[in-house]
Design brief:
single chain; alpha+beta; OB fold (Dihydrolipoamide Acetyltransferase, E2P); two-stranded antiparallel ribbon; 3 helices; globular
């Protein structure tokens, strides 16, 4: 399906929703303010390598070029959406100034921006 047709499909679905049925979530004190959000270091990164993490059904290990001259490793739970070889060579957006986190014995240095569509398909 081409992107224009997909966009039209989403627009058609959205316009038929009954506005009264939309549930608005209450303000959560855990939300961050705009100045805090602006501190996020978002970078465009290129996927150099991507492999499935052993002992995990969901995690993929990415080796990335973030422009720093040093490879960056990020783990992400998107194996149910993508096979590792599909992602090599792709350009993604990552937040790189969050604290490192170890998962399955591997340290992840960032997080990707992604969204899951209504039909359960993930978009990076």
């Amino acid at each position: 399906m081409d992107k224009m047709a997909e966009k039209e499909e989403v627009t058609a679905e959205t316009s038929t929703e009954d506005a009264e049925k939309v549930v608005v979530e209450p303000y959560d004190a855990a939300d961050i303010d705009f100045d805090t959000f602006c501190k996020s270091d978002m970078r465009v990164v290129k996927v150099k390598d991507c492999v499935a993490v052993k002992k995990s059904k969901r995690l993929l290990q990415f080796t990335l070029d973030d422009g720093s001259g040093t490879d960056r490793t990020i783990l992400s739970g998107m194996h149910s959406y993508y096979e590792p070889e599909e992602l090599v060579g792709k350009t993604l957006v990552a937040i790189v100034n969050i604290p490192p986190r170890a998962m399955m014995g591997i340290v992840s240095h960032g997080m990707f921006l992604s969204a899951e569509c209504k039909k359960g398909k993930m978009r990076l």
